[in-house]
């Protein structure tokens, strides 16, 4: 079992931050909003969308990441 021992970090200050734009279809954006609301309700933490994206990417970069492995498998299937 993978244990993600990442500590949530505050957002970088605007002056030093590098922007990242991700575009979604309107329906997918609504699904993501709902998912984040459910995450907030489940954890009691008011997650910001950017925090969620940063944390997911941080988790995917861990050495034993199941997320990285899943993305690799998906890329291999798509490229086949």
What does this structure look like?
With 80 residues, the chain is mainly alpha-helical. 55% of the residues lie in helices and 0% in strands. The chain has helices at 26-43, 49-60, 66-79. The longest helix is centred in the middle third of the chain and has 18 residues, at 26-43. The protein is globular and about 35 Å long. The model has no long low-confidence stretch (mean pLDDT 86).
Q: How does the overall form come out from the CA principal axes?
A: globular
SS-based class: mainly alpha
Enumerate the spans where pLDDT stays under 50 for 5 or more consecutive residues.
none
Residue fraction in strands: under 5%
Main sheet summary: none
* Count of strand segments: 0
H-E string: HHH
Spatial extent as radius of gyration: 15 Å
DSSP helix fraction: 55-70%
The chain-level mean pLDDT equals 86
- Measured between the Cα atoms of the first and last residue, the distance is 29 Å
Tally of DSSP helical segments: 3
